[in-house]
Amino acid sequence: MILKEKEAYSGTDERGFYGHKQEQDVAFHLRRAFGDSEQIRIIHNLMIEHGGERAQIDHLVIHPYGFIIIESKSIVGEVQVNVEGEWSRSYKGNWSGMPSPIRQAELQQDVLKALLRDHVKQLLGKLLGIQMQIGGREWRTLCAVSSTAILHRKKMPKDVADKVVKTEFVAKKAKELIGSLKGGFLKGRPSFSQRELENIGTFLLEHTAALQAESEQPAQVTPPREPSPIAAPVSEPAPLSYVVTDAERLAAESPVDIAAPIEKLLTCKQCDEADNLIGMYGQYGYYVKCGTCSTNTSMKQPCRACGWKSVRVAKVGPSYSATCRKCDHQYPVYRQGEGRA
Predict the structure, then answer these.
(1) Residue 255 has what DSSP assignment?
(2) Nearest to 166 by CA among 79, 43, 61, 55
(3) What is the average per-residue pLDDT within 304-331?
């Protein structure tokens, strides 16, 4: 049963398009395998948040014995993983490192597990008067890579190779991990009841819908009160502290007037030129070409909120913005001058 379908792509970034297509391909195979199942629940593009940490899960499989988190990766070329679990891939003969999708899925799993654990009383029932728990269920992670990728499985650690599958085999691998849906209890596999599966699915759908609505609608900011003409007594208690969220901070910022002059967001890494730059797109994504010294400078600047270097850059009209892959902070990196967009 598909609880949440994969949405259509609405961005303009080329890399984003291919990543989205890979997720659609995985969603297609999961739908064919489990679309009619009453015991298997599939949620695509699940957003979760707990304890100040937010994660986005490409595909979540909920089954009677537990959960499978699937991370999709669009990879063209070869893939290698060394004994330390570090990933690298090739593109047109050039090798470069990449974050481990398996580790990424494991971090997502930690957030999901903590979120469900805090709401276990409304999700699971009791057995002999004892509250059932989430942590004792089966938790698995998989990485589904493009079918055209070349995997050097013999050089991969076995625990990594067992979790990496090509797209067309992802449903088969999920079925192997789930195993038989009959007689599992007799084999000592704690299982969710049908009601509990419904509770978990409904809870996660409502949770991700609330997060998506929050990100799409700017939060209302209460205007500051006019200062009182009479000073408050010293004995008056101080107001409760309040932590401003990212959404509220972004909503509080003044809208940018495209026609107005803007600050210099990006400079040439060679000569520090800030005005004579041209936005371009190439093999490694968006960059600017310096009209003074012809040096190329990547638009993938470190996150201004947490300093993380892995970011996604997207273009809307003449403006380019980056989104941190770690904390989801969004910030402008470059805006094309008139006549060059």
Answers:
(1) P
(2) 79
(3) 83
Structure tokens at 311: 């970011």
What pLDDT, on a 0 to 100 scale, did the predictor assign at position 283? 64
Distances in Å between the alpha carbon of 255 and those of 161, 250, 259?
A: 48, 9, 12
Using alpha carbons only, give the angle 153, 156, 159 rounded to the nearest 5 degrees.
105
**Residue that has been written with the tokens 């992802």 in this structure:** 170
Fold classification of 264-335 is Rubredoxin-like (2.10.290)
Paired tokens of 118:
């805090």
The answer to whether 90 and 135 have CB atoms below 8 angstroms apart is no
Q: At residue 231, what is the residue type?
A: A
State how far the alpha carbon of 176 is from the alpha carbons of 163, 181, 263, 281, in Å. 12, 11, 55, 42
Q: What is the DSSP letter of 229?
A: S
pLDDT digits (tens, 9 = 90+) for 245-267: 454 444 444 443 434 343 457 88
Element (H, E) at 78: strand 78-81
Three-state DSSP class for residue 333: strand
Q: Please report, for the chain, the start and end positions of each structural domain, with discontinuous segments joined by +.
A: 2-215, 264-335
pTM above 0.85, yes or no: no
Q: Nearest 5°: phi and psi at 60?
A: -120, 125
- Hey, which residues does 296 pair with through a beta bridge? 289
Q: What is the pLDDT of residues 301-316, one digit of tens each?
A: 888 888 877 888 888 8
For residue 340, the Cα-to-chain-centroid distance in whole angstroms is 32
Helices 194-216 and 101-118: crossing angle in degrees, nearest 10, is 110
